[in-house]
């Protein structure tokens, strides 16, 4: 009986802590939005470091990741296209090549790989950086100067991360399709222009908005979760733990959001499903 | 300055006031029933041994810590816990704080570290701010290190930059947490001169926490001693108040 009570108590504590964490993350997100709206107010003359901080974040998250994302997009696109061109006619669905490319590469693989790469590269670095700032009392120093860490660190990171994610996702989609087709042309000698036309003909404005939405959500999740865990560090031993936590939790949140969105808007988001599954 | 007393009815006289502050951390009593008040023109050194919670006490005095103690800390006549966070941040824009470890922002160079509070709070444009910072850098004779990151600085250089950053906003109140730690003689004299200059300005307050008797002597502020969790203000000081 005592053991049962202990287990129940521990489970309860975990639930309460999880709930508390979620609430604090939502507060951090809302604080960030308020801070962003304040800076965007044309009559506001404080926080002149905003543009500098955002540029730094875009440089670190977006520009410096261009090569990495480009190479991976090329490999993904090439693999998917070669496999699709070789195998789809065997199942009698060769004419759906463009749509498959759109659903698989542009809508799904692209945003997921970009999210994982940015989270693994920039999100974890951001968590470690903020954690070290906490340990070195730099965050306390900012507060002592009357500078809110949300205004100075979280909000510019948030903006930089969202802008970078938008650029990287579109970049991934373009490189995956164009580069992938080029790779396929070189390896299995397909007519490049015909397949390129097929691919782009199937992409609509809805897909553009879809990638945009996914990019914004991914950018928000990465920046808020990384900053939340980074700012919660109390001592140097916690830094490595919060880095892992931020990676896992942001991945988890991204999946939860995806499942909720898919469950709610499945028919709207995937009209092509009718074509495949009747 | 108010003497170490329990009665604090006339709290509005003081810009910074501690009333019966008791702080415990993990069953260790840091300080017990500490009360004092500082009004404009007051400068106080508190001698405090190393490792007994000097930095925590300083954070309590500044309002950076609001949860670890009993008693009240008033800034400008109002309990620090009752201020809205925006108001506190506004008040802190006219406060300088020199940390024991300097606490310079690690990915900003010296120039940006000094410009940081101005860029955030000042209504001036970036050009004017850069001009002010260049003047401060020339005044502090740190032109040769202005584009270095904090990790490349010596302890003395870090301290000088920390003092410059604290004073660049022309604060009304200056909190100093062991500012002379690790300084060479030349830097020590330089910082003492700067702090004396600050203290000579009208309507300013300095609260210095240090273990260094030589710094207290050099600054010639009234000296309080912290011993056995109690704060003892100087006799001359009490006589003056009574």
Question: Quick recap of the structure?
Answer:
The complex is a heterodimer of chains A (278) and B (242). With 278 residues, chain A is mainly α. Chain A has helices at 2-40, 50-61, 66-87, 97-135, 138-144, 149-188, 192-201, 205-231, 237-269, 272-277.
Tell me about this structure.
The complex is a heterodimer of chains A (278) and B (242). Chain A is mainly α and 278 residues long. Chain A contains ten helices and no strands. Chain A is globular and about 65 Å long. Chain B starts with 15 loop residues before the first strand and ends with a helix. Chain B has a single domain, classed as P-loop containing nucleotide triphosphate hydrolases (Rossmann fold), CATH 3.40.50. The radius of gyration of chain B is 18 Å and the shape is globular. Chain B is built from eight helices and ten strands. Classes of the chains: A mainly alpha (278), B alpha/beta (242). At the A-B interface, helix 4 and helix 5 of A face helix 2 and helix 3 of B.
Key descriptive features of the protein:
heterodimer; A: 278 residues; mainly alpha; 10 helices; 85% helix; globular; B: alpha/beta; six-stranded mixed beta sheet; 10 strands
Helix content of chain A: over 70%
Which runs of chain B of at least 5 residues are low in confidence (pLDDT < 50)? 5-11
- Inertia-based shape of chain B: globular
Most residues in contact, chain pair and counts = A-B, 22 and 32 residues
Work out the number of β strands of chain A. Answer: 0
Just give the CATH class of chain B: Alpha Beta
Radius of gyration of chain A: 22 Å
Work out the helix count of chain A: 10
The fold-level CATH name of chain B is Rossmann fold
- The assembly state of the depicted protein chains is heterodimer
Give the biggest beta sheet of chain B: 6 strands, mixed
Helix and strand pattern of chain B: EEEHEEHEHHHEHEHEEH
Tell me the count of domains of chain B.
Answer: 1
Radius of gyration of chain B: 18 Å
């Amino acid at each position: 009986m005592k053991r049962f009570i202990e287990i129940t108590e521990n489970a309860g504590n975990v639930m309460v802590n999880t709930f508390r964490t979620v609430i604090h993350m939502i507060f951090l997100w809302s604080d960030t939005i308020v801070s962003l709206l304040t800076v965007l107010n044309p009559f506001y003359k404080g926080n002149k470091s905003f543009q500098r901080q955002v540029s730094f974040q875009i440089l670190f998250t977006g520009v410096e990741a261009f090569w990495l994302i480009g190479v991976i997009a090329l490999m993904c696109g090439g693999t998917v296209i070669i496999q699709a061109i070789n195998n789809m006619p065997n199942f009698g669905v060769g004419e759906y090549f463009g749509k498959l490319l759109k659903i698989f590469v542009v809508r799904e693989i692209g945003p997921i790989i970009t999210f994982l790469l940015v989270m693994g590269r920039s999100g974890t670095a951001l968590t470690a950086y903020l954690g070290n700032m906490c340990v070195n009392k730099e965050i306390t120093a900012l507060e002592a100067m009357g500078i809110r860490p949300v205004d100075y660190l979280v909000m510019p990171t948030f903006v930089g991360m969202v802008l970078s994610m938008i650029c990287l996702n579109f970049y991934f989609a373009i490189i995956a399709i164009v580069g992938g087709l080029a790779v396929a042309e070189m390896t299995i000698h397909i007519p490049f222009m015909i397949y390129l036309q097929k691919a782009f003909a199937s992409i609509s404005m809805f897909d553009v908005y879809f990638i945009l939405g996914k990019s914004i959500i991914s950018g928000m999740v990465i920046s808020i979760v990384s900053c939340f865990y980074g700012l919660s560090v109390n001592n140097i031993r916690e830094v490595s733990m919060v880095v892992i936590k931020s990676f896992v939790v942001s991945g988890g949140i991204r999946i939860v959001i995806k499942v909720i969105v898919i469950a709610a808007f499945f028919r709207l988001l995937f009209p092509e499903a009718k074509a495949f599954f009747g | 300055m108010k003497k170490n007393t329990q009665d604090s009815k006339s709290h509005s006289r003081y810009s910074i006031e501690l009333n019966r502050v008791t702080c415990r951390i993990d069953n260790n009593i840091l300080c017990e029933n500490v009360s004092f008040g500082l009004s404009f023109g007051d400068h106080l050194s508190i001698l405090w041994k190393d490792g007994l919670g000097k930095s925590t006490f300083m954070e309590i005095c500044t309002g950076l810590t609001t949860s670890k103690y009993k008693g009240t800390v008033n800034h400008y006549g109002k309990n620090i816990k009752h201020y809205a966070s925006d108001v506190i941040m506004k008040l802190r824009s006219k406060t300088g704080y020199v940390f024991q470890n300097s606490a310079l922002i690690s990915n900003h160079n010296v120039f940006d570290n000094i410009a940081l509070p101005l860029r955030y709070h000042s209504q001036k444009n970036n050009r004017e701010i850069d001009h002010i910072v260049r003047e401060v850098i020339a005044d502090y004779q740190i032109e040769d290190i202005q584009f270095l990151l904090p990790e490349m600085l010596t302890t003395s250089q870090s301290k000088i930059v920390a003092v410059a950053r604290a004073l660049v906003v022309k604060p009304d109140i200056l909190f100093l947490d062991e500012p002379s730690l690790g300084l060479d003689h030349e830097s020590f004299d330089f910082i003492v001169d700067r702090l004396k200059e600050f203290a000579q300005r009208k309507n300013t307050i300095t609260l210095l926490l240090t273990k260094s008797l030589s710094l207290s002597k050099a600054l010639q502020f009234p000296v309080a001693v912290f011993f056995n969790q109690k704060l003892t203000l100087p006799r001359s000081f009490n006589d003056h108040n009574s």
